[in-house]
């Protein structure tokens, strides 16, 4: 049985303060600083650990959900969810603008980052929800647009004894002025299995 609780924005703490944060009803409008990102080394040769994330504790046998709407216009504009242990161990998942369209993707980092993605052009400007379910030695990442079915995005390792935090994330690596509307932030029970159907 699902046990869901909304997380108040004030319950979480910022990793790297954004350019601006504004409460709008139950939503939170976050404007990213230009040049912000999370990435470690692979292919590009640089390390960025200055993206914005509003983090709360993420214990085992729990799931964190983050909802958002954003108008992505420039290369690498991104929003979603970050799971963080430390600067070398983290996972981000969400929607990122590349090759002219939004892509659903994930970056898993254990010392060095990787990146997987798939185009979702019909998700542009719509409400997207990311869910990270932590159980045992793994995190299962799922995403959906509005009330569409959940899509399995990634299964990633995360040590059961790792002290992790998770929450809404956004970055604007190539420009200033990206504002993301975060529409939900909640903790719930993890998905019962890797395959829901």
TrEMBL record:
InterPro entries the record matches: ConA-like_dom_sf, DUF1349, UCP022704
Source taxon at top rank: Bacteria
PANTHER family: REGULATION OF ENOLASE PROTEIN 1
Identification of the protein by name: DUF1349 domain-containing protein
Biological classification of the source: Bacteria, Bacillati, Actinomycetota, Actinomycetes, Propionibacteriales
